[in-house]
Amino acid sequence: MLVAATATGRDLAPRVAAKLRVPLAADVIELGRDGDRVVVRRPVYAGKAILTLGVTARPAVVSLRPSVFTPVAQPAPGTMDTAPADDGDGADRVVVRAVKPAAGALDVSEASVVVSGGRGLKEPANFALVEALARAFGGGAAVGASRAVVDAGWRPHAEQVGQTGKTVSPALYVAVGISGAVQHLAGMRSAKVIVAINRDRDAPIFKVADYGIVGDLFEVVPALTRALTALPR
After folding, report:
1. Structural domain boundaries, residue 40
2. Which pLDDT value is given to residue 45?
3. How far apart are the C-alpha atoms of 16 and 35, rounded to whole Å?
4. Measuring CA to CA, how many Å separate 39 from each of 23, 54, 56, 65?
5. Is residue 34 classed as helix, strand or coil in its secondary structure?
6. Which is higher by pLDDT, 109 or 216?
């Protein structure tokens, strides 16, 4: 049984596992089989190590980190069975209310590109630079933030990337003015490509970045925005 490790999935999966009296393999980034066992791999210790687990319970309940797995073509269509829900006395009923973001806004956990800002932006008004860079990707990018700026009230918690925020695995993650605390790295290090912009060449974010730009973000980010905007669509 596969569940997305989103905010809703993290609430639902353990309830299902407890109801079935089986263990839960959570926040999985790799999935396979070894004979009758389901074998999974998941980050532990804020992403510093990868744990390999063999799940022997039936059914195996697994929550998958969003965007980590590449979709593949199905050789044949699946089948669907529809069964009526038995309300019973309502004692076991779970009500989930979906709260959607503002129209046009992308969720950081679902976007293919995430542009995140940190304390290096100095003040909330300067997040306009991050928003402009995200728009330059043509509508496919979401704006994220580090815990420090969310705690300071600069950005909403829904945009927070990290161990206490949302875990993201986009095709491209751009970190603007983010030093790279271990809690933040735990939430974004599984991105396919990581680009870091920071004036401190010793910032921890550069240890996980595929591309690093050491420089003043107030000069680098507008230049990147102009270059992306000029690209043919």
Report:
1. 2-64
2. 80
3. 25
4. 13, 5, 9, 15
5. strand
6. 216
pTM of the model: 0.71
Residue 107 within a domain: no
| CB contact at 8 A, 44 and 81 | no
Quote the tokens at residue 14.
Answer: 């353990």
Per the CB < 8 A criterion, the answer to whether 195 and 180 are in contact is no
In terms of Cβ atoms closer than 10 Å to its own Cβ (0-12, 13-18, 19+), residue 68 is middle
CA torsion through residues 141, 174, 199, 177, sign: positive
Cis peptide leading into residue 23 (ω within 30°):
no
Query: Mean pLDDT over all residues of the chain?
Result: 88
What six digits make up the tokens of 96? 């989930």
- Residue 217 pLDDT class (50, 70, 90 cuts): very high
Length of the chain: 233
Report the first-to-last Cα separation within the chain, whole angstroms.
40
47 and 117: one domain?
no
Number of neighbours of residue 185 by Cβ within 10 angstroms: 22
Picking from 43, 64, 85, the residue at the C-terminal end of a domain is 64
Give me the sheet containing 141-145, strands edge to edge. Answer: 141-145, 113-117, 172-176, 193-198, 211-214
Q: Are 107 and 165 in contact (CB under 8 A)?
A: no
Between CA 166 and CA 158 the distance in angstroms is 8
> Out of 11-15, 107-111, 124-128, which region has the weakest mean confidence (pLDDT)?
107-111
Is residue 100 situated within a structural domain? no
In the chain, how many domains are there?
Answer: 2
